[in-house]
Specification:
This protein is an alpha/beta fold. The chain has helices spanning 6-12, 20-32, 37-53, 59-70, 99-112, 130-141, 154-168, 184-201, 218-231, 249-257, 278-286, and strands spanning 87-92, 118-121, 144-146, 172-175, 205-213, 235-239, 261-265, 273-275. Helix 9 links the parallel strand 5 (205-213) and strand 6 (235-239). The radius of gyration is 21 Å and the shape is elongated. The chain binds guanosine-5'-triphosphate and magnesium ion.
């Protein structure tokens, strides 16, 4: 992962200790790092107050202060899981963000934690070959896949998967969804139907996992807003963190929408999936001191 953190960029800047220009430059860097205008200006204003009151002058001091301010803003949440009940994780996100891959990675991760048995539900009935893609993941990990034909009702697929998991005593259902329908209103309506079935039928832990692509910047923020408003999001997976120099979008999504991050994806293989770690994240975002 070749990342140039904010601190290196800060070092490259002309820096007249504590000047207005310096704070403007910091704000620009934060915006550039995908923290969004709102969070960037909030942080810069706070940093200015702290720098004045504590008489911070050096880049090093400002860096530490910024890191201390960011730390509590990032929400993280371990995956909710109950060993004695069914655990349903419904994967949400726009097309191409990494839903299906993240779902397969979570299946693998659950296996490493001794959790399962896991069954996969091919809830993306919209995109041709989506079910086949999931079947392939199922084969590779030796997991059962519940699927129906292309164009089937995704709610019915989920219902089937839950019923068969309950009948067979499976512990986990990982359900895929379509990232794109004919339009946004359709997508929202469809998700609300799926959500209703999940709530009524699951009877155990039910978590909606939103996948956000770390490389898409501010766009990811808007996606989070749409999905959260539509059905409510319980936890976020930050995918493609390996290809992103920043991942700063996690700060804005945490602070402005209050959504917690559970995992990040660092590649295409099943094992490229890790619980979200704030310190590693901050080091990646800000760079080493
Ligand atoms: N480098 C990298 N690539 C990833 C990661 N996660 C997913 N991908 C790749 O991103 C592409 C899209 O992933 P999918 O899992 O198919 O995305 P999706 O959201 O299910 O897409 P749709 O089904 O079309 O809505 C694939 O080529 C994945 O291999 C990641 O963490 N890092
Ligand atoms: Mg998919």
């Amino acid at each position: 992962m070749q990342k140039k953190g904010l601190f290196q960029k800060l070092k490259d800047l002309f820096f007249g200790g504590g000047s207005d220009e310096a704070f403007e430059a910091i704000e620009d860097l934060l915006i550039e790092a995908d923290l969004g205008y709102k969070t960037a200006s909030f942080l810069t204003a706070e940093l200015r107050v702290i720098a004045r009151s504590q008489k911070l002058k050096s880049k090093q001091e400002l860096f530490v202060a910024l890191k201390d301010m960011l730390r509590p803003l990032i929400r993280i949440k371990p995956l909710e899981y109950h060993p004695d009940s069914l655990n349903l994780y419904l994967f949400l996100g726009v097309n191409g963000v990494g839903k299906t891959t993240s779902l397969a990675k979570l299946a693998f991760w659950l296996g490493t934690q001794g959790r399962g048995p896991v069954v996969l539900a091919a809830g993306d009935t919209f995109r041709a070959a989506a079910a086949e893609q999931l079947q392939l993941h199922g084969q590779r990990q030796n997991l059962r896949v519940v699927a129906q034909k292309h164009g089937a009702d995704p709610g019915a697929v989920l219902y089937d998967a839950l019923e068969s998991a309950q009948a067979q005593g499976d512990r986990v259902v990982l359900a895929d969804t379509a990232g794109r329908l004919h339009n946004k209103a359709n997508l929202v309506k469809e998700l609300q139907k799926i959500d209703k079935i999940a709530r009524e039928k699951c009877g155990g832990v039910y978590q909606k996992i939103l996948v956000l692509d770390a490389t898409t910047g501010q766009n990811a923020f808007q996606q989070a807003q749409v999905f959260h408003e539509a059905v409510g999001v319980d936890a976020v997976v930050l995918s493609k963190y390996d290809s992103s120099g920043k991942g700063g979008i996690a700060v804005a999504v945490s602070r402005e929408l209050g959504l917690p991050f559970a995992f990040w994806g660092t590649g295409e293989k099943p094992q490229d999936f890790h619980p979200f770690d704030v310190e590693i994240f901050l080091d990646g975002l800000l760079g080493e001191e």
